Amino acid sequence: MTITELRPSTPEALQRSSRRRWAALVVLMFPVLLISIDNTALSFAVPALSRDLRPSANQLLWIVDVYPLVLAALLVSMGSLGDRVGRRRILLVGATGFALVSVAAAFAPTASALIAGRAALGFFGAMLMPATLSLIRNIFTDDHERRTAIAVWAAGFSGGAALGPLAGGWLLEHYSWGSIFLLSVPVLVPLLVLGPFLLPESRDPHPGPVDVVGIVLVSLALGAVVFAVKAAGTGESLAVAGLIAAVGVASGAAFVRRMLGREQPMLDVRLFTNRVFSGALTVNLVSVFAFVGFIYFMSQHLQLVAQKSPMQAAVLMIPGIVLTVVFGLAAVPLTRRLGAGRVVVVGLALNALGYAVVAVGGSGGAMVALLGGFLLLSAGVGMAETISNDLALSAVPPAKAGAASAVSETAYEVGAVLGTAVLGTLLGMVYRTGLQLPAGLDPVQAEQARSTLGGAFEVATELPAATAAALVESASHAFDQGVLLTAGVGFALSLAIAVMAARVLRGVR
What we know:
Order of helices and strands: HHHHHHHHHHHHHHHHHH
Shape: globular
CATH architecture of the largest domain: Up-down Bundle
Number of strands: 0
Largest sheet: none
Number of domains: 2
Strand content: under 5%
């Protein structure tokens, strides 16, 4: 039975039903916070786990990347599976698996074991996210209530992404790197205990047959494209990256053709002909792209260039976290006054303005520019994310909420991966080009200094004071020049999508 079948007829019953709905939302926020925190907290644990596990450069890359890669590849498939077997059921299975694997990952004895654990976390994480949003779509049938619930959901997602450094910084100052993974256990316990009582089961009443070929094609399409971008961003051959991307595009085209030819497709690709649905997904992806990409270079600048501890850097991000939540919730009443399309455009314009502040601020005022730009960007992302998710879900029938939620979540994860990969690639390119190495470095030190800003600062600890100071100054300047370029790209992209949204979402209330 779904919640839409429950129609209380007395005021007391209506009040109980309302309390139950909002209690269910509180329970659903636990996995949302967990996944979004996990996306950004691990980066703070990389130095500690590198010392303990001593991974190779390639293994370290896979430790970071395999989780979002698997997650993005499986979201659509898991959303469709939830439509079939029950969204609450797959949510609870995913939460149980995620908690158990997190414990194993926390005590991984080798880098290879940690890579396997991160891949498994991506598998179970893909069960969690489509289920949360699709359950919200079925629990809150009133438009205003649903929009408020999605505002809370989006605020939790964006706020959790920025809270990741805060949680990671605090844990790593007091405990080992494994504590980052153990965090999931207390977060998921309330869901596992209260979920069976508060969350109504819902599923597609008329599911089609299991499409194994379709699952393979969509997983290969998403996984290959994301992997190709990651490969290109880490110095792999462009020919290899292009070949992988071509496999992904071909798989995606085959998936679309297959879905168009099936009577009961696992994903109704005709939904993309709906301008509101497609426009909302584009806004979703670009907003997350801008947010995660900004956090990527901001966290490095604060910790390395500005010499802040992980905890101090995380504390400086708190005002942005607050604005993300506040403006996400404020988007609901603003939508009633201005219309959904205008609120989205304002949010995207704030994203562009945030990047413009960084681009204009220059290296000399980088600290002030970064913090000010982050405040503007956080406010914009809170508004744009909230309304774009609501628009995407509102454009589909409730029975297809799982698949639509999975597409929305896929846009989020792909945006997060591309935000780091694309902007990180541009930043790394400018950094390597602009870095002037002082005399006295051996070939190994020179290569390490060229690889990343963190590598340059690590090499500086091994050099005489004068040489170290010259290397740190050159590396910091080259990094800030890269930030200026990426900020310009972020500004242009956000502005272009704002113009697109103004046209596509014109008149959407």
